[in-house]
Design brief:
- By secondary structure, the protein is an all-alpha fold.
- It contains three helices and no strands.
- The protein has one domain.
- The relative contact order is 0.05.
Length: 80
């Protein structure tokens, strides 16, 4: 597989490779493996949350209400 990088990204990769003594291919492989693992973990978490909402185990709250709760909590901490 061939991956095309922007010149700035490729330059950063080459500098990191020189600094660490690792091959650029190895750095890209590690970065992609980590990214894909994290993406799979997030996808699993989101699927689980969706299932919880669909089943009724968790009740979603309105976005504005969530922000209002955070604002009140923050204000309460400042006042204590």
């Amino acid at each position: 597989m061939e991956v095309r990088l922007k010149p700035e990204t490729e330059s950063r990769l080459q500098k990191l490779a020189a600094t660490t003594g690792r091959a650029p291919d190895d750095l890209v492989e590690d970065a992609m493996a980590g990214y894909l693992a994290e993406l799979a973990q997030v996808r699993t978490m989101l699927d689980g949350r969706y299932d919880e909402i669909q089943s009724g185990r968790v009740e979603p709250i309105d976005g504005e209400e969530a922000f209002n709760r955070l604002r009140r909590k923050s204000q309460d901490r400042r006042n204590s």
